[in-house]
Task: structure prediction
Amino acid sequence: MFVPSITNPVGDFVREMVPRLAEYLPASIQSDTLNSIVAFLVNALICVIAVCAVNIGSAPILIYMERKVCAHVQCRLGPMRLGWHGTIQTIADVLKMLFKEVYAPSGADKLMFYLAPLIVLIAPFIVCALIPFGRDLVVADVSMGIPLIIAVNGFGVLGILLGGWSSNNKYSLLGALRSGAQMISYEISFTMILLFVVMISGSTNLMSITLGQEGTISDWWIFKIPVLGIIAFILFFISSTAEMNRAPFDIAEAEQELTGGYHTEYNGTPFAMFYLAEYIALVTNSALATTCFLGGFLPPCIGVAFVDNYLNMVPGVVWFFAKVFFMIWCYMMVRWTFVRPRVDQLMDFEWKFLLPVNLVLLIAGAAYIVVCG
Amino acid sequence: MIQPRFSNLPPGFRIQRETNTEEFFINMGPQHPSTHGALRLALRMDGETIVELVPHFGYIHRGMEKQAESMSYLQYIALSDRQDYLTAIQNNLGVVIALEKGMNVGVPEKGEYIRVMLQELGRIASHLVFYGCFGGDLGGQTCLLFGFKEREMIHDILEEVTGSRLTTNFFRPGGSRYDVPDTFIPRVKAFLDHLEDAMRDYERFLSKNIIVLERSIGIGVLSKEDAIAYGCSGPVLRASGVEFDVRRANPYSIYDQFDFDIPVFHNGDCYDRYKIRIAEIHESMKILRQCIDKFPKDGPWRSKEKPVRLPVGRYYSEIETAKGLYATYVVAATTGEKPYRIHTRGPSFPHIAALNKMVQGHKVSDLVTIMATLDPVIPEIDR
Result:
C-alpha cells in the first residue's frame, strides 16, 4: 500500500540541534517531551517565517518589477522619483495602503467580506511551502506534492467568489461569477498538464521531479520529450495565466468593463491582501513551472567538464530564482502585450481547444513512454 | 406588485420582479472607466447579455448654446474648443466658416493652407486617441499609451503654432490668430515620417491580433439604413457603407484642391469602424504631404480686415471633424457682435442614440468595444 510521507530537512536539523542545546540547561528541567515540543515550535516558527519572508518579501519586488516592465513596454520610465530609479516607491505605496481606513459598503456581509482576502491568501502560501527552492531548502517535502498543490489551488476561487458576493455590488458579483467559471474550468487543463509531468517523471514528489531533470538543458522535462514537452509547457503557461486571473485572461477584474470586478469595493489592507495573493500566485506558478519544466534549482549543465565547476559554484537557490524571475518576466510581457478575450470566448477556448489538446497530449505522452521509454 | 426601485427610469425599463426574475438592472456610469466621461448607461441585463440600454445625458451640461447668446462671436470660438476637446481645432473652423459667410471676408491662400494642415493634424490626433481607447477598452493598456505617444507630438506642434495644446482657439474670420513659425513645415514633415513607421507598428500590434479580430468582427453591426436613419456621420457612417464626407460632398476651405480618397467599409461592425479610422489617418497624411509640397512660402496669412460684427441673417456651415459632421447654425437678429442664437449639431449625439440598436444581444464586454468604436466625447454630447 502506498503511504504518503512528509520529510522536512529543516525539521530534521532542528530536531537534532534542540537536544544538543538542551544539554546546557540545568538537568532538573531537561526532558525528552520538552525537547520535542520546543523542536516542534522552533521548526514551525522557522517554516512560517521562511514562507512569509519569501512570499511577502517578493511582492514589493514584483510590483516594482511589474511597473518597470509595463513602463518600458509602453515607452515610459515608470517610477523614478523615490529612491534610486523609484525603488522605494512600492514600499511607500504599501505603507499608504496600510494606513487607509478599512470599511465595508452598506449591505455587505461583513464577516464574509473580511474573510475573503484571508482565504485568497491561503492557497499560494501552502503551495509555496511545498516547492523545493534548493537541495535542502524545502519546508515540507511531501510525497504527494502535485495532488496537494492541485487540491489547495482550488481555494483561491472560494475567496474570490465570497469577496464578490459579499460586497453587495453587481459589478463585484459579475466579476466573481466570471472568475469562478474561469478558474474552475482552467483548473482542469492545469491539472492535466501537471498529470503529464507526473507521467513522464514517474513521481508526484516535487523534489524527485526536480532531481529527475539532472543533466544538461536537454534533460529538462520541457526538452526531454521532443515537441510534447514544449507543447505542454506552452499549455501550462496559458492555463496558469488564466488560473491566476492575470491579463490577458483577467476577465474577473476587467477594469474597463467591471471597474475592478470582485475587488471593486475593497480598499486598504483587505485590498492589499488581494493584491498580495495575486503576486504570490505569480511566484508560486512560476516556481511550479520552473520545478516541473525548467530543472528547478539545478544548473543548466551538469556533467560537461568545461563549465561544470563554474556553474556549480552558484548555489541552487540562485538558479531557481533566476528561472522563476525569467518566467515572471514572460508573464508580465504577455500581460502588457495582449488584449482581453470576451468571457464566452475564454470558456470556448478552454473547453473546445485546451482540454482536447491536453487529452491528446496525455495520450501522446503515454505512447511515447511505452515506445521509447 | 413591488414598487420599481428605479422610478425615474422610462416605462418598460422597470424591473418587473414577478414576471422576470432572470433580468436585472445595472447602472453603468456616470463614473465608469469606459464610458469616456460622465455618461450614464442604464442596462437591463440577462446574465451578462444586454437586453436593453438607455443612455442618460446631461451630467456635464454647461448650457453652451445659451452662454453663446451673451457672448460675442469671437468669444464663442473659444467656447467651441470645449465641446469636443479632441477635435478642438476643427470645431474652431466650423464656427469660423459660418461667421465668414456673413462677414463677407475672404481668406488668403496661405491662411487656407494653414487651416487645412491644422485640420488634418487634429484629425490624426483624434484618431490616435481612438486607437488608444479602442485598445485600452479591449484590455490592452499598452495601446492606450502608444496612441497617446504620437498624439503628444501633434500637440507639441499645435502648441508651437497656436500657443496651447488642447483648446486651441486659433482660427478667426479671415484667417487665424498668428502666422505659423518657420519651423512648422519641417516639424510636420518630420512628424509624418515618424508616424509612417509608428503606424506600421501599431497596425501590426492590433489589426491582425486574433483576440482583437474575435472581439470586433460582427460585433455591434449598424446597417446602412439604420446608420442613415439615426443620423450617424463620419467614420461610423462610412464604416456602414455610405460614402459621405463633407470634405468631398460639400467642400469647404480648399479641400477640393487635394487628391485623397474617402475610405468606405461595408460591414458596419466594430472592426470596420476601427479599420476606417486607420485608413483615414493614412489619407490625412496624404493631404498633409500635398500641403507641404504646395505650401506658399510668403504672402499674407490673413485678410487685411478683422471683422467682428455679423449682419442680420442666418448662417450655416458644416465641416467634417474626426468624429463626423459638425454643423453650426448662427442666427443674427441685429447687426452686431452678439448672436441671437447659435446652435451646434455635434456628431457624437446621434451615435450614442444608435447605441441601443447596436448592443442588444451582446455582452457587457461588447458594449465597451462598441462604445470605443463610436468614439464619443461626452462634453460634445452635453454641450
User: Anything to note?
Assistant: DSSP finds 15 helices and eight strands in chain B. Chain B touches chain A through 29 residues (CB under 8 Å). The two ends of chain B are 40 Å apart (CA to CA).
